[in-house]
Amino acid sequence: MKLKQWGSIFLLMALTAFLLSCDKEGTKPVNSPQRLPIAKVSVDQVIKKIAGDQVEVVGTVQAVQRAEISSKITGNIITLQVDLGSRVNQGELLVELSVEEISAQVQQAKAQLEQTKRNLKREENLLKKNATTLQTVKSLQDSTKIAEAAYREAVTMLDYSRITAPFSGIITRKIGNVGDLATPGKPLLYIEEDKNLQVLTDIPEAMILRIKKDDRLIVTIPSVNLTIEGVVAEVSPIADPSSRSAPIKLRIAANPLLRSGQFARVTLTMEQAKTLTIPTSALVPFGQMERVFVVKENKAKLRLIRTGAQSNGYSEVLSGLSEGETVVTAGNHNLLDGQPIIIQ
Q1: pLDDT category, 270, cuts 50, 70, 90?
Q2: What burial letters (b/e) apply to 31-51, b meaning 16+ CB within 10 Å?
Q3: 249 - beta bridge partners?
Q4: Fewer CB in a 10 Å sphere around the end CB: N or C, the chain?
């Protein structure tokens, strides 16, 4: 090796040794960790509480009595005495139809009946004088019965031209108008008894045998922030094969805030069981994550958990915590992982 190359190697080694000695004696570490301030917090323990196994299903508020008003005969509407929202009493006239043909049939049937009765009376008088036969009298008696039946039928058809309220309630839909042609099966009005309401909902098939008539369930109406008690009135014994659920009906007490068609939630409370709970204030959400700070050696340690139902200021803990652990419940939103704490 040449003398020039040996000189370069010795120079490089000397420079490296100089830099190392400067680092040990004259420099300081970069990004040294700063000491976190002590935070004052409040804490609580993770405990087990008895909680009901609850399932919530959606339902609808409905009137117990609901009716679709339509005509049994064909005719033009000449009178429609109600409007949308009108309150009506049982037997009150709702719709009247123009049925001139039926009126003519009533008059014709009445005339035929009167004529048949006169003929029968004449033959009965002749029979007393032995001027006619008993067979003729019996034949006229049968004709009279037929005429009476035809007359009653015509009168009944004429009565169908006046449609009255089947029960007291409120008009919820109005489809027909004066001048419209009413035909059998075509809806004209809808009426509901608004003072007698129920909640209709579907329950999972696995719970059909657990729900009994007269059971009391909690019903919540979110739109009016109302929570009431419903009594099971009807339970279907079979499930719908397409939805795997069965309908039930719950009677509810009258309330001025309730209206037919409102959205409802029904809570099905099943067997009770113990579950881990923490105060809901201990939760520090971050996006989709649920976090808490656990106290370890006077420091706050960040912990990711998973929660379930929330009730009365407490949250059910499904995973991430153990019974007896201490969690921070106040002063936790600005905490950092590992920060020292003082419990107030």
Answers
A1: low
A2: eeeeeeeebebebeebeeeeb
A3: 200, 234
A4: N
What is the sign of the dihedral through the CA atoms of 138, 140, 141 and 142? Answer: positive
277's tokens:
């709970």
Residue with tokens 């007269």: 214
Q: In this structure, are residues 191 and 63 in contact, taking their beta carbons and an 8 Å threshold?
A: no
pTM, 2 dp: 0.55
The percent of residues in the chain predicted with pLDDT above 70, rounded, is 87
> Strand pairing partners for 167?
none
The closest alpha carbon to 73, from 163, 2, 142, 150, belongs to: 163
- Does an H or E element contain 155, and which? helix 134-159
Amino acid at 223: S
- 85 φ, ψ (degrees, to nearest 5): 95, -5
- What percent of the chain has pLDDT above 90? 53
Contact 221, 264 (CB under 8 A): yes
Per-residue pLDDT at 36: 84
Question: How many Cβ atoms from other residues are within 10 Å of residue 236's Cβ?
Answer: 15
Mean pLDDT of 151-175: 92
Pairing verdict, β 339-343 and 39-45: parallel
Please state the φ and ψ torsions of residue 14, each to the nearest 5 degrees.
-65, -40
Contacts of 301 (CB under 8 A, 6+ apart): 293, 294, 295, 337, 338
The Cα–Cα gap between 139 and 242 comes to 61
Task: Extract the tokens encoding 297.
Answer: 């050696």
CA distances, 108 to each of 83, 103, 130, 150, 308 (Å)? 36, 9, 33, 10, 77
Alpha helices per DSSP H over 27-128: 100-128
| Tokens 């049994």 -> residue | 72
pLDDT at residue 35, as a whole number: 80
Element (H, E) at 24: helix 3-26
DSSP string, 24-79: HHH---SSPPPPPPPEEEEEEE-EEEEEEEEEEEEEEEEESSEEEEEBSS-EEEEE
Beta bridge partners of 115: none
**For the segment 100-139, what is each residue's pLDDT rounded down to a tens digit?**
888 899 999 999 999 999 999 998 899 888 888 899 999 9
Q: How far apart are CA 292 and CA 303, in angstroms?
A: 5
Residue 187 and residue 72 in contact, taking contact as beta carbons nearer than 8 Å: no
